[in-house]
Amino acid sequence: MNEAGRARLDRMGEWSALGKHREELGEVHLRELFERDPGRAERYVLRVGDLHIDFSKQLVTDDTLRLLHDLARATGVAELRDAMFAGERINVTEGRAVLHTALRAPADAVIEVDGENVVPAVHAVLDKMADFAGRVRSGEWTGHTGCRIRTVVNIGIGGSDLGPAMAYEVLRPYTARELDFRFVSNVDGADLHEAVRDLDPAETLFIVASKTFTTIETITNATSARQWLLDGLGGDETAVARHFVAVSTNAEKVAAFGIDTANMFEFWDWVGGRYSYDSAIGLSLMIAIGAERFREMLDGFRLVDEHFRTAPPEENAPLLLGLLGVWYGGFFGAQSHAVLPYSHYLSRFTAYLQQLDMESNGKAVDRQGQPVAWGTGPVVWGTPGTNGQHAYYQLLHQGTKVIPADLIGFARPVAELGDELKAQHDLLMANLFAQGQALAFGKTADEVRAEGVAEELVPHRTFPGNRPTTTILAGELTPAVLGQLVALYEHKVFVQGAVWDIDSFDQWGVELGKVLAKRVEPALVEGAEVPGLDASTAALVAKYRELRGR
Ligand code: F6P
After folding, report:
1. Could you tell me which of 247, 199, 240, 203 has the C-alpha nearest to residue 223?
2. Which candidate in 22, 43, 70, 381 could, as Cys together with 331 as Cys, close a disulfide (CB 3.0–4.6 Å)?
3. What's the whole-model pTM score?
4. pLDDT of residue 2
5. What whole-number distance in Å separates Cα of residue 462 and Cα of residue 459?
6. pLDDT digits (tens, 9 = 90+) for 479-529
7. Using a 6 Å cutoff on CB, does residue 160 contact ligand 1?
8. Which residues of this protein are catalytic (predicted)?
């Protein structure tokens, strides 16, 4: 038992039972599982909102599922979930509540943190965002010289960039096409340069998005953007108020930067950066798609929140997806998880999920600070199909690694495509279905031989199959469906963190690099001595200075 009264995961009977079950399954093939149980295609499907989730091509049986649910019960997943929804401080290392679910709660909900209902404040900010977004969209909000805003540039990084940037791409067909949106994150000056080089400052609005308002990349880029604006508008400092707004939890720092706090959109320390794009961090998105669509997206989130909170375990989609990840990580040695959306609009979805999953569950000590003896978060990766098929799918099909994958697709192409482009949609989706089939069932050596392939080539042309996938289908990629998808993954990540007994809501692992970068920078610029610099890095710094001509 640990201090929280929970047995260590690897000492739980439910964990050992899964290990034993895994041994019994041995090398069982999906072909065999389907032969033994043809009904699994109908049975192994879950439905949440618009999402049809088919997990029949997963290497599981009814026994596996029963044992995984036993593990979820033994590890207290439901209790931790309820504590999260109730606003308890489940982020133990930072002593914070974890309430991204409050961001999409209905106006009449009551969710308390320290005895205060946070829902009215959430809706007040949403209303303020809606008012501002409406004014930018209509042209009522003008720049310093009276011009209407044509381009919105979001400056932020990590959770203050990936969410809005991803969602803007996903929902492009719903955006005000007469406005242009750009996202600047990298401290590499090239990012800001490319974003603004063809812009007119008089028509540009910057949103500085930073939960802490101390993130060096964002403050550096925002400072440079401010200079660019002032250079372009003749240096009148009063211009800043018409061209810069902020999204932050830190009013003091926002004011110190020179942004009028009347133009600050607030959120709260109980929203983690990677869980924040449905807060004010989504301001750029709301300007792009309008308040109504934004609220539809929030409705999508809420639908999955309610499902996660109330659906019985056997029907609970985030619970199932989380447990499948625990299964492969714990008992198949899977190191990574591929997310393969068959939608061009989801091109940044996996990058978004990388932060959500890897910053949450990339931990090696449990909630009590003891080293874990089990694998935790996987490497999450992937790009839209069909592009990946012509690049890395070779390894998925014939490589030596187990890589569970999610295939995500939509029945209908977006409405604004012309008929000819709409017709391409069936080919896109045929590829999704074909890949799921090929990964699961492969092609045996006998099947290859029957095609008359020369014997020496048979091993090369055999597909082992047995590569697990989940297929997630929806009718159309709408704002509500995006909300559903994101909430599905948020809660999946939660489930895995709960089973692994790690704090999914801190991110101490990013701190060391930040501190060292601050220490190294003077060495690069002035050749200053850096105390304690290791020999390898010191040599690299010297080489850099030589190549830089210093
Ligand atoms: O360095 C990691 C991190 O703290 C992320 O968790 C966060 O999303 C990102 O930096 C940006 O932080 P902020 O919104 O405070 O600028």
Report:
1. 240
2. 22
3. 0.97
4. 66
5. 5
6. 999 999 999 999 999 999 999 999 999 999 999 999 999 999 999 999 888
7. yes
8. 359 (proton donor), 390, 514
pLDDT digits (tens, 9 = 90+) for 442-459: 999 999 999 999 999 999
> 274 alpha carbon to ligand 1 midpoint, in Å?
8
Residues 484, 489: Cα–Cα separation, whole Å? 9
For residue 525, what are the CA distances in angstroms to 209, 218, 297, 434?
A: 28, 20, 46, 54
Of the candidates 179, 343, 360, 219, the one whose C-alpha atom is nearest the C-alpha of residue 276 is 360
Q: Which of 98, 155, 215, 217 is the pocket-test mutation for ligand 1 (most atoms within 8 Å of CB)?
A: 215
Phi–psi pair at 162, nearest 5 degrees: -60, -40
Residue 215: the pLDDT is: 96
Between the two ends of the chain, the Cα-to-Cα distance in Å is 58
The Å distance, Cα 20 to ligand 1 centre, comes to: 41
Which residue has the CA at smallest separation from atom 10 of ligand 1?
Answer: 158
Written as six digits, the tokens of 374 are 């089990």
* Residue-by-residue DSSP string for 167-202: HHHHTGGGS-TTSEEEEE--SSHHHHHHHHTT--GG
3-state secondary structure of 469: strand
Q: Which helix (H) or strand (E) holds 350?
A: helix 349-354
210 lines ligand 1 (CB under 6 A): yes
Ligand 1 centroid to Cα of residue 214, in Å, is: 9
Residue 180 has pLDDT above 80, yes or no: yes
Question: Does 354 sit in the ligand 1 pocket, CB within 6 Å?
Answer: no
> For atom 9 of ligand 1, which residue has the closest CA?
158
| 461 φ, ψ (degrees, to nearest 5) | -105, 5
Residues 355, 339 contacting (CB under 8 angstroms)? no
**28 CB under 6 A from ligand 1?**
no
Q: What is the per-residue pLDDT across 63-102, written as a single tens digit (0 to 9) for each?
A: 999 999 999 999 999 999 999 999 999 999 999 999 999 9
CA distance 450 to 271: 58
Q: For residue 383, give the H/E element and its range.
A: none
Kindly list the strands in the beta sheet with 204-209, ordered across the sheet, starting from the edge strand earlier in the chain: 180-184, 151-155, 204-209, 244-248, 264-266
Would you place residue 3 in the very low, low, confident or very high pLDDT band (cuts 50, 70, 90)?
low
Residue with CA closest to ligand 1 atom 1: 510
Tally the C-alpha atoms within 13 A of residue 35's C-alpha that lie toward its C-beta.
Answer: 6
Determine which residue's CA is closest to atom 6 belonging to ligand 1. Answer: 273
The one-letter code for the residue type at 168 is Y
Cα 251 to middle of ligand 1, angstroms: 17
Does 271 contact ligand 1 (Cβ within 6 A)? no
Q: Which residues are the active-site residues?
A: 359, 390, 514
Dump pLDDT digits (tens) for 243-265.
999 999 999 999 999 899 999 99
- Residue 374 carries which side chain, given as an amino acid letter? W
| Mean pLDDT, rounded, of the chain | 97
Find the 425 Cα to ligand 1 centroid distance in Å.
37
